[in-house]
Specification:
The protein has 362 residues and is mostly helical. 84% of the residues lie in helices and 0% in strands. Mean pLDDT is 84; it is low at 4-10 and 12-25.
Length: 362
Amino acid sequence: MVTYGYIMLISYIEPQLRGYMAIAIQRARIAPLLIIAFLSLVDTSFISPVISSYTKSLGGGDFEAGLVTALYSIVAIPATIAMGYAIDRIGRRRILIPLFIGDTLSLYMYSLASNVQQLMIARALHALFDAGVFPASISIFREAIAEKRVGRYMGFYWLFISLAIIVGSSTANIIVLRLGYKPIFQLLAILMIVGFASSIFARELYTPPARRASISFPQLRGLWGRLIPAYLSALILYMGIGAITGSLSPNLIKYLGFTDRMGAAATATYMAIATTVALPSNILAGYLIERRGRQEVLAMGGILLTASMSILGINLSDWARHVSAILNGIALAMILVSSSEIAVDVPAPARGTPLYIAQCSY
């Protein structure tokens, strides 16, 4: 009787242990990938708020500051085309390792720059190496997660990216005021070493195809009908964010009599509310993807974004701006999580191309 009881107990516990072991293995597998997700955007989040003033501190004028700022996109957009192909042809992990080495060196070069020309070289190299980190990181992440928990894990992926944006944009100016510019780039170089180590420990499940013809566009035939709306939604989202950051302060000055400082503070508050709301909304978006589907969540994000922008078009009062910012934060999470999941959910040998286009939309 006792033996029978033990057998029944073991037969009950064994499946539970297997389930817990599967979850533990899954989490151990994605831990370095979430670190990589955080690091894929933390560098630009730190640098973007200070790169213009850093250029001027090296003797540049307004033109040089604008050129150095834009140089990242000028180099990164065409570089991402090559990187998108490379991550499919060579492999995700094999690309991430040298990219983080290049990021480490180029970020340290920022701190060594003594004039604008040297800064431009560092900026161009940074853009070149950084262009492939996001497509490679999200590809290897998507291939490591269990199919039944796709939405949930993609929500976590974007949660870590959102944290990187908040940490970088909120602390960069504080570090500059207290320590100067160079410690920012030295700190980022150290963080990229962490990314290099995480890439070494990351487990890749993807095997590049033997034939070159098996990669990219031929495998995307029939998928553009869902990819294009995802790209357009992300593009419209960022155009909306650009409109808010560029026009909210002037409109508050024009219609409500705000000073320049008050308008800038109101814009900063708006974006702080939106990005803070987006943090938990990433998890909500992932949950809804599992329950309702990616296309429906993408549509919900579009509706919320329209509502957010419409409120600002009608009313610029404090309460209207706060409600608009909350809706904008939820829309931000829903559109980014769902559009990236749509872009990455293609045949594995063709992931680089749709992710390249997605990165251009972002």
